[in-house]
Amino acid sequence: MSPADEIIDIVDEDDHVVGQAPRGEAYARGLRHRCVFVLARDADDRVFVHRRTATKLLFPSRHDMFVGGVVGAGETYDDAALREAEEELGVTGLPRPRPLFSFLYEAEDGPLSWWSRVYEVRCVLPVSPQEEEIDWHGFLTEDELDRRLAERGDGGWLWTPDGVAAYERLRGAGF
Question: Residue 27 half-sphere exposure, CB side, CA atoms within 13 Å?
Fold first, then answer.
């Protein structure tokens, strides 16, 4: 099945399920849905950073400091966080990601909106990222990550706007 055909829950402004739709339709019509963001740290406390493939439905070829994605229809945030982290990192046996906070992401330049739950997980296993999703990856210290983010307006890396929004909230909350 194509990612655009995956059925997802559509939610209201209070994160209550009000229907279901294919992911592609939800994106095209700006229907609010649910997503998970998982900050994966290695044994040295570095953050897993990656560049999304050019074939991604949203934000192709952009860098992100989170693994994660859309919560499937009927799936819990917690189950989606573990599933997405293991899929994208290419590992099995991760501990359950620790939930940190939720927020409503609303794109500045369009109708995209989703309830987002942010998690953190320690991954001490060797990663083998999913090639369909990730075309480059590395582990960066927080200082290296912050430097890359500061360069984004000066010919630096292009970042996913929802990932930046989640990371700024994460840092602002002292995590």
Answer: 14
Asked if 37 and 118 touch (Cβ cutoff 8 Å), the reply is yes
Q: Looking at residue 54, what is its pLDDT?
A: 95
Nearest CA to 77 out of 108, 28, 118 is that of 118
pLDDT, mean of residues 39-65 = 95
Q: Where do runs of H (alpha helix) occur along the chain?
A: 23-29, 77-89, 142-150, 161-172
pTM of the model: 0.94
- Contact partners, residue 174, CB within 8 Å, separation at least 6: none
Q: How far apart, in whole angstroms, are the C-alpha atoms of residue 38 and residue 34? A: 14
Cβ neighbors of 116 (< 8 A, separation 6 or more) are 34, 35, 36, 37, 102, 103, 104, 105, 162, 166
